[in-house]
Amino acid sequence: MTDELKKMEKMFEAQKPGKPSDAARKAAFSAAMHAFEKENQTSTQGNPAEPRLTNKGNEKSRVVAQLFNWRRLMKTLEPKFAYAAAGGVSLAVLAAAMINVNLTLPYDHSDGALVREHTLPTSEAEPTLEEGLVSSAPSKPDLGGQLSADKSTAAPSNAPMVFMDADRSGAGNQSALLKVQPPAPGKRLGNGRTAFMRQESPAQLSGGIVQNRALTSGQEQIPAGVRSQGRDQFSEIERNPQKLVSDDPVSTFSVDVDTTSYAFTRAALNRGELPQKDAVRVEEMVNYFDYDYTAPTDASQPFSTHMSIMPTPWNEGTKLLRIGIKGFELPPTEAPNANLVFLIDTSGSMEAPNKLPLLRNSFKLLLSSLKPDDTVSIVVYAGSAGTVLEPTQVADNNKIMAALDQLDAGGSTAGAEGIRQAYQLAESQMVEGGVNRVILATDGDFNVGLANPEELKGFVERKRKTGVSLSVLGFGQGNYNDELMQTLAQNGNGNAAYIDTLSEARKVLVEEAGSTLFTIAKDVKLQMEFNPALVDEYRLIGYETRILNREDFNNDKIDAGDIGAGHTVTALYELTPVGSPAKLVDELRYGTETLDTAAGSVNEYGFLKIRYKLPESQTSELISVPVTMSLEVDDLAEAPNDAQFATSVAAFGQLLAGGRYTGNYSYDDVIALAQSAKGTDEFGYRSEFINLVRLAKSAAAMAPQQ
Amino acid sequence: MDMKIDDNQLAAQAAKGDAAAFQLLLERHYDSVYRIAFRFSGQREDAEDLAQDVCTSLAQKIRSFRGDSKFSTWLYRVVMNAARDAHRKRATAVKAAKAYGEVSELERGEQVAADKDAAWLYEALEEVGTDLKETAVLVLAEGFNHAEAADVLDIKESTVSWRMHELRKHLKQMALA
């Protein structure tokens, strides 16, 4: 052997792989055994023990997905299995027990905590080997043929399982690695990882809930509930705190028209899991729904504001202020021409039915809402990136359809080249004053190849200045990198949507095509100033990722969200009126200087200012509206239906996010409120919401009480 | 009782849904799966992740094992493929993680200090590309002969030899650069 090779061999030798940690080994075995069980259940029964679900279409496609994409799928299935184990454990275990009926060596049923609550159908399947096999066997690899377990050395099988809080340890950590705009990167990254290293917690192992368990005997159970995890990455959300008007009278934020969080939450709940807390962005849930605000009549003032003040259903001592904004609706005939470039991820991971095939159909839907002289091009990235459809007029429908049909998943990702080509095409077809947009569709496995997310963000941001914006459509689950998608869309002046069903695709791409495609105002910022004479404390519900500094409001250089034609945006504040017993912050003993009494202070809760830029403008315009007492109703039932419904969604979001401020308000209360405020509900979105609350209720009941 | 059921037999049983056989296979091979996984990254956490992915995937893949090669050969092939997938997927994450690396260097302390060589090793492996990397891991780290490596990689023995030759050339160039 030559010197160079010898040298490398030596280095390999010097590298000690060491022993994998017990926790990792356990996690691996348990995940594998679950997979195995699942696998054999599926094939022998032909009817996997799925939790009850309402969304049949979606469900079916996921079952099919098992056949295609085991790897990603295991990540998705593990948490679901946990649910199955909790709810339908007898069935699952019975099935397993039948398969294994003639075994002398039962396998590890590491679902200790869950399984234990139910009687196993046969004593044979009692998982006595957990310890004996899983941890001690590997040190004696030749346990080999010894098919009967040494029960005397086996530790008690039902050693308590500790459920790590999957939200923090797993996702927080991972997303930290990909954090694009970390406020304090060092600190956050350090913390996550360090915590792991010290504790040797298996939560670091990305993956399903199974891996987020540590076996810490003698400790009590720390429940995480049946929370969704997988490789989906969300950045940690610190919920907005209660603020004192006397300290901080002004609240500023950017509008947010994304709805990703709602779709993601729905997907999780449909699997019978509660979503990760950090996946819950209350404002995106509230803004998922269409509210029937009256639109402004002419384009010179691009939106109208609708406010109401009503009692808070979850807190007797506070009031809710609802701010609704409705964008100008563009008559279809006046819609500017669109130049759309679909940038489609066709890497192997997109093969699952809820990804590429769904995407294909989604885009076909979008085509139907475009005008004949709009142009569409398609760039794929997988293996080698390439343009599969040169810019083509929508009139040439067949050609576009054929190109879509020929898309095939396979190969690795070559995202960098793809994204460059997409922008190049968009620029080559630039429609002055029209819609120039790259629509990126991916499952989040976005290995763009541009050296890192930061660089990608910069690229997208630069391109935005040339007039090409970016929308991101997320598909699939289990590997979804939410934060990266959000960041990209935000920096590309676009929006991010998560598409899990064809009806969602219809909502995002067809019904909202106007708002998704035709921006009527950009950098829209809201600033609410509260009147200390009437309001003691306030809390903005949601918008955590959209908070701006007070001084950013008037700074036109500071980017904020865009509003499309016909779009509605809703924000809710919880207000504690002066003198209310619900006050959370104590008075200062030594007080503050007397407050100036400004004009209108006796009958105004506050003053709302909205800043926006018209699409072509670089300077902002201002709309200001006082929030007067005349907007107030004494009974929630008297508030507009839309306000009530938005309140129920906000309550639900807060409950899912931990319910810090919602007191005893329950899922049942949410259902009752939403039910009464449902209205005509033409497309059934609100009914679907009510169903989701029911699912959350049962998923929460499944989870150990927190 | 039969003291040593061979792997191929167990695999056949597992393919039929025999969970005990499947578990036994995991028991026997987890350590080597982990070890090879480790060779690909030099990071314990990554290796543990990868090993878990492999184990999980086996639940399904075991059915496709035909028994015409040694089980371990087949298994290594599965590991290789999984490593390739994971590598592709992580490309971005790894780069982002480099910033984190500086933070944790202090925490990892001595290990990192002693691992300058390792850094070179993994950089070099990264540079030579997937094919050569896999071959290097099998031949140099795991001590496979060219025929065995060829078996795992499902290529001709002569290709392995050629790759080793290429590898040497690359390393030489790197040393000069």
Distance between the termini of chain B: 61 Å
- The chain-level mean pLDDT of chain B equals 77
Q: Which of globular, elongated, flat, extended, rod-shaped describes the shape of chain B?
A: globular
Element order, helices and strands of chain B? HHHHHHHHH
Record field, number of beta strands of chain B: 0
C-alpha-based Rg of chain A, rounded: 27 Å
Please indicate the percent range of residues of chain B in DSSP E strands (runs of 2 or more): under 5%
- Whole-angstrom Rg of chain B: 18 Å
Largest sheet of chain A: 6 strands, mixed
Largest beta sheet of chain B, briefly? none
Helices of chain A, by number, come to 21
Major protein interface: A-B, 82 and 69 residues
| Strand element count of chain A | 18
How large is the share of residues in beta strands of chain A? Answer: 15-25%
Class computed from helices, strands and strand pairing of chain B = mainly alpha
- Which residue ranges of chain B are poorly predicted, with pLDDT under 50 across at least 5 consecutive positions? 92-114
How would you characterize this protein structure?
Chain A is built from 21 helices and 18 strands. Chain A is α+β, with helices and mostly antiparallel strands and 706 residues long. In chain A, α12 links the parallel β7 and β8 (375-381). The longest helix of chain A has 24 residues, at 22-45. The relative contact order of chain A is 0.12. The model of chain A is unreliable at 43-226 (pLDDT under 50). Chain B is mainly α. Chain B has nine helices and no strands. In chain B, α7 packs across α9 (157-176). The model of chain B is unreliable at 92-114 (pLDDT under 50).
